[in-house]
Amino acid sequence: MLLWSGIARYMQHFGYSNLIGCASVSMRDGGRTAASLWDMLERKALAPSELMGFPRHPLPLERLEREPNVIEPPLIKGYVRIGAKVCSPPSWDPDFNTADFLMLLNLNTMNPKYARHFGIRSSTN
């Protein structure tokens, strides 16, 4: 929590409102979890079209089986809970054998409960 509070203070001090990063999911299961997670995130946490990107090395979603009872990894679940959005279909990283989800968090539109927790001053809380 201290790390996130520090990042938030830094961003506010320098006038930044967007935090972008990658959330990786292992491909050890042949990509079933990653493909199923994309299906879930596309429905509940997709960024607006003007913020969408396209992966250089897209995960071949159309060829992957799905996991019927996919469980969100804790990091992605936490990001979505505080208000982060996914900004593209997952990219495949063959060096680490992961599916990488591009995530965006806008401090001004994040969940007010968590904004207060991290000491973020925004127009929505």
Instruction: Tally the helices.
Output: 4
Strand content: 15-25%
Largest sheet: 4 strands, antiparallel
The coarse silhouette is elongated
Mean pLDDT: 90
- Oligomerization state: single chain
The count of domains is 1
Q: What is the C-alpha radius of gyration, as a whole number of Å?
A: 15 Å
**Helix-strand pattern:** HEHHEEEH
Number of E-type strands:
4
Can you tell me the residue ranges where pLDDT is under 50 for at least 5 consecutive residues? none
Give the helix proportion (percent range): 25-40%
User: N-to-C terminal Cα separation, in Å?
Assistant: 19 Å
Structural class by SSE content: alpha+beta
What order do the helices and strands come in, and which of them pair?
Blueprint: H1 2-13, E1 18-26, H2 32-44, H3 74-82, E2 85-86, E3 91-93, E4 98-106, H4 112-117
Antiparallel strand pairs: 1-4, 2-4, 3-4
Walk me through the structure:
This protein has 125 residues and is an alpha+beta fold. The chain has one domain. 32% of the residues lie in helices and 18% in strands. It is built from 4 helices and 4 strands, in the order αβααβββα. Strands 1, 2, 3 and 4 form a 4-stranded antiparallel sheet that branches. β3 and β4 form a beta hairpin. The model has no long low-confidence stretch (mean pLDDT 90).
Task: Quickly describe the structure.
The protein has helices at 2-13, 32-44, 74-82, 112-117; strands at 18-26, 85-86, 91-93, 98-106. The protein is of the alpha+beta class and 125 residues long.
Based on the model shown, name its key terms.
single chain, 125 residues, alpha+beta, four-stranded antiparallel beta sheet, 32% helix, elongated
